Every structure is written in structure tokens, then in C-alpha cells.
Amino acid sequence: MGLRKRGNGSSQWEFILLGVSDQPQLEMLLFVVFLVLYIMNLVGNLAIIVVLWLEPSLHTPMYFFLSNLSFLDLCYTTSTVPQMLVNFRSTHKSITWAGCVAQLYVFLSLGCTECLLLVVMAYDRYVAICQPLRYTIVMSRRLCLQMAATVWMSGFSNSMLQTILTVWVPRCGRNRVDHFFCELPAMMKLACVDTSANEAEAFAVSVIFLLVPLGLILVSYGYIVAAVLRIRSAQGRLKAFNTCASHLAVVSLFYGTAIFMYLQPPSSYSQERGKMVSLFCGIIAPMLNSLIYTMRNKDVHGALRRVLGRLFGSKRT
């Protein structure tokens, strides 16, 4: 791909991220909002990771996978938000070709990884509730490490092909992306050739990484509900359901927005609606995940208070 200058001063080696450039009065407001959300996401997910690392009582499979989710959410927002904040305060809202490719690849990879990680977390809850006596044997440290490694490698290896197919679609000089960041449907809109094959591939991948994992999660919770209903005491049933409530909330947030984003062909993709859903999935949902697990999960909430108590207590002494 040769380097050719265009009349507007941009080149084929960069993309222009339009965002809300048609409404410049919103840029300062969005800058402040996204900065606050990003800081909240950093603080919330870092707090979860540090607390799970420092609190020995939380060194269990469930919280090992939660620390993976928190790290993933940190990466999710960091892959897009800093560039967005820079563009909000800049007159030339560009990203290099390499930066755009990296952003697209990382965003897709983390999305695929979260799909699979939520399945593993559902399996952990299934074993804990349906096979409690075998839980420590089944969910061994070795198996947990193997599942985590498989999830991360699968997500990043799958997205490599999608990224390559997307960035090498002929664009006939088009480089103005009507989005806040380099995201798959918006990038496909730049194509100047028929993209039916790319759309079919993207749809197939979405089915494999969205509908199949969601089906496995629903099956797991079907068994969990059946097992919980067999518990005689109301307190026991409530305790069992509470251990799954946070995970179910995160699954609903993630899969709801991801299915809306990717299980539709880019040809019927609505730019404005797609922007809002992408922002929710990539910025707001990761922040809400940390709030859900710190506020709804009594173990994490209690551990956070103990760790903060030890830190501030030691400072006073």
C-alpha cells in the first residue's frame, strides 16, 4: 500500500476518527465524562485485582477468574479511551494505520476472550453448586491456569484473521471512520468493494463466540437452578443464588450489547446507534463490572474493607 497524500492533508497511512466532529460543542462534555469513567474503571478494577491478591481467603478459582476479568476490563478501556481523549482535545482527530490496526485487533481479541472467560466462570459456579464435594478436586489450580491460558490464547488467535481480513479490504482512499475508535462494523463501512464474504465470516465468528458460549452459560445455569431448587432451606437457596447474581449481571450486560453490535450485517449497521452501543460495551460495562462485584459480592466487599483498614490503620500507627 503506497503512501499517498490526500487533498485534506491526511494520508493513506492514517485514519480520521470523526466521533462527534459534527457536534463540536459536545466534545468538552464527552472528554470530562469519559475521563471520569476511565478513572473509575481503573480504580475499581485495580482495587479488585489488588484485594484478590492480598486477601488469602479469596485465593479460590472463582476469584482467580474474577481477577482475569478485571484485568481484561482494564485492557478493554485502555485500548480505546486514551486515544479518544486525545482526539477530543485535538483539531486533527487522526490515528496512524498501525495504531488503528492494533486498536481493532486488541478490541476484538479482548471481546472474544471475555466471551470465553464468562463461560469458564459459569462452569466454575456449576461445579461449586452442583458438585460441591468434588469442587476442590475438579477446579484444581492446574486446571484453572490451563483454562485461563486457553481462553486468552483463543481470543487473541481468532481475532488475528478477522483483523487481517478487515484492514486489507480495498477502501479506494477512504480513511474517515465515523466512530470514536477503530471498530469492526465502522471499518467495514469504508470498503469500496462487495464485502459479503467478510460479513459472512464476521457473522460466523460472532455465532461461535457469542451464541455458542451464551448457550453453554444458559445450560450451566439451568443445572444450577435445578440444584438450588432442591435445597430445602430458603436461606441456603438464597445464598446459592447470591453467589451467581454478580456473574449473571455481568453476562447480561456483556452479551446483550455484544449481540446487538455484531449479530447484524455491517450493511444494515446504524452509525449513531453503533457508536453508543460500542461506548457502552467498551467503557461503561467494564466500569459497571467492577461496581457489581464490589457492591453485590459480600466477600469482595468485606475483603476490600479489611485491606483498606489494614492500610490506613498501619499509616496511623
From TrEMBL:
Membrane-topology descriptor? Multi-pass membrane protein
Domain (G-protein coupled receptors family 1 profile) ranges: 44-293
Q: Which UniProt keywords apply?
A: Cell membrane, G-protein coupled receptor, Membrane, Olfaction, Receptor, Sensory transduction, Transducer, Transmembrane, Transmembrane helix
Q: Which GO terms describe its cellular component?
A: plasma membrane
InterPro entries to which the protein is assigned, alphabetical: GPCR_Rhodpsn, GPCR_Rhodpsn_7TM, Olfact_rcpt
Membrane as a keyword of this entry, yes or no, is: yes
Note whether Membrane occurs among the keywords: yes
The places in or outside the cell where this protein is found are:
Cell membrane
Q: Which domain of life is it from?
A: Eukaryota
Q: Where are the transmembrane segments?
A: 28-54, 61-82, 102-123, 143-169, 203-229, 241-264, 276-295
Q: Name one GO molecular function term.
A: G protein-coupled receptor activity
Q: Which PANTHER family match?
A: OLFACTORY RECEPTOR (PTHR26453)
Family statement: Belongs to the G-protein coupled receptor 1 family.
The entry's protein name is Olfactory receptor
